[in-house]
Amino acid sequence: MFNAIIPKLCRLRKEGKLSILLLAISFLAIVAIAFAAPLLFPIDLAKVSLGDRLANPRFVDSDSPYLLGTDSLGRDILIRIIYATRTSLAISMTGMFFSLVLGVFLGAVAGMFGGIADIVVMFLIECRQAIPMMLIGIVLASTIGPGSFSIILTIIISCWSGIARITRGQVIQLRQSKYIESSRLFGASNIDIIFKHVLKNIASVVIVEGTLSLAGCILLESSLSFLGLGIQPPLTSLGIMVNNGRDYLISQWWLAIMPSLVIVLLSLQVSLIGDWLRDRMDPKLRHASGR
Amino acid sequence: MIRYVVVRTIRALATIWLVWSLVFFLSRLTGDPVKWILGEFATKESYETVASSLHLDLPLWEQYMRTLSGLVRGDMGMSYYHRRPVADLFLQRLGPTMALQSVVIVATSAIGILFGVVAAVKHDKLVDKAIRFFTIVGCTIPNFVFAVLLIFLFCLKLKWLPSGNIGSFRHYVLPFISLSIGPIASISRLTRSAMLDTLSQEYIDVARMKGISESAVIIKHGLRNALFPVVTVLGGQIVTLVGGAFVVESVFSLPGIGTLSVTAAQTRDFPLLQYCVFIMIATFTFVNLLVDLSYAALDPRIRDGEWATN
Fold first, then answer.
1. CB atoms within 10 A of CB B167
2. Fewer CB atoms near the end CB (10 Å): N or C, chain A?
3. A158 to chain B nearest CA, in Å?
4. Could you tell me how many CB contacts below 8 A there are between chain A and chain B?
């Protein structure tokens, strides 16, 4: 079996695709493990065992039953990191999805109809971009109470503007193209044109933009929960774990550093995949990202 | 040009008003500040006295008009808790934030542009690869992770620097580093791609052919043209920076504007929160307005086709 795979891998390496393949596989593996966490490790997140508190990880004490040790309430860090990754990913993906929908809708409306619609959308984009995302997060967390809903809402409100701006630019370019003009001559309505031609043509740009903004969403989610404006216990998220671990930096440094590394790993993977997608889908931008 | 300036200024004022009003109504939804001030077991009389002294018994619309007219007259109101004008409280906390932000803004632009230019000039050399690696890492690591890593390394392991509060400049070193790495990375990334674009233009070859020295070609012909997109983004960077200050100030317990607004939001101190938001939004909008206007003054294509593509 290996004999068949190795030449294939060599070919991929030559084409420069091996690293992106590994990146995508490792990211998908993390996503799969994180989302299957309740099946793989069916534990009660609220359960504490104070007898086992602050156990050493295996790289400090090789006899330890816990690979990454336990936290100040005696809970296994590795399992908590997996559950935290699950929450962080679920929240940022949901937020990204809805901001994508909102952004594409508003951008397409502004680009397609122009006039008042365009002025209003551009004005809203400008307003949004004058507010720091953290401020939106703070106001929302104190308005509707901190939790997954407030973070998702913060992500939607923060991320739609960039997507709307790009969609609008794309739609304006498309609207002036010959084939849209000719389908309009054949009597297609604006709605028809948006769904049949425009959305299909801007799909690649939107996918790239969505992937790149997912990295931003992961960072935003972890920053908000780091400040305590997000998920509440017993649920956990990567930002909360870093914040809790901060008090033990002197003696148990891994409590804060391990979840930090997971955040960095996730956002690095997502943004590298996004960069690669951009290079693939839009040759015009190829040299911009450094190829 | 005059028409452009007027339209842009009106839009900037409208932005400030809309965001300010949004915060007014949203924060009113968060809860009753009187309950926060008096606690749960307040008598009805004391509740009413406090509510009427803070004008919280008026209908929402009247409260809004009062606050708005105060804003126009320059009277920003008193903090519910400190019983002092909010502007005083704000000014008191402005020092640490200004000290940090001003250095960060100047330094990140300078270092980011320098990195970008060097990377573009040494395209595909080792320096370029190193800078590209740095930009990828810098863009993907959030500032609070940097802050925690830096505290771990420099405060706890090496014991070189203090980890919180204010005092000498040594207190600002770590907040400065954790706040600047992200912006430096994104500015240098942008400068690099703009410079690569510019350096591949024909007029650069012409300039070289005329026998101008290489450094003059890069700075006078390359950088001056490449800076246009960079300057536009710098305005937006300020918003990101202040957002980052919320996190970094709280990690390093700097008594600045970030921590002040977080506490104001948590304690339902509406006048204080609103003042903080107003000053921030006004600053951003004003900076963006200046960027846009200087841009339009330099490039006639922009002021002519205001609603054209991006």
1. 8
2. N
3. 12
4. 134
Of A65, A108, A141, nearest to B262 by C-alpha is: A141
Q: In Å, how far is B26's CA from the nearest CA of chain A?
A: 7
Torsion from C-alpha of B121, B227, B107, B251, nearest 10 degrees = -110
Using CB atoms, which residue from A132, A227, A271 is nearest to B239?
Answer: A132
pLDDT at residue B308, rounded to an integer:
42
Q: Give the amino acid at A273.
A: I
Residue B10 or residue B81, greater confidence: B10
Cβ–Cβ gap B152/A226 under 8 Å: no
Is B284 in Cβ contact with A130 (below 8 Å)? yes
Q: Indicate yes or no: CB of B246 within 8 angstroms of CB of A129.
A: no
pLDDT tens digit at each of 291 positions of chain A: 567 677 777 776 666 677 888 888 888 988 888 888 788 777 776 676 666 667 677 677 777 667 677 777 767 788 888 888 998 999 999 999 999 999 999 998 888 888 888 888 988 888 887 777 887 887 787 777 778 888 899 999 888 988 898 888 888 888 777 777 788 788 777 777 777 777 777 888 888 888 888 888 888 888 888 888 778 777 888 888 888 888 887 777 888 888 888 998 888 888 888 888 877 776 555 444 433
* Neighboring chain B residues of A248 at a CB cutoff of 8 Å: none
Tell me whether A202 touches chain B (CB under 8 Å): no
Q: Helix (H, G, I), strand (E, B), or coil: what is residue A70?
A: strand
Contacts of B125 in chain A (CB under 8 A): none
List, as one string, the DSSP characters of B106-137. HHHHHHHHHHHHHHHHTTTSHHHHHHHHHHHH
**Closest chain A residue to the Cα of B148, Cα to Cα:** A246
Question: What is the per-residue pLDDT for B304?
Answer: 59
Cis check: omega of the bond before A234, within 30 degrees of 0? yes
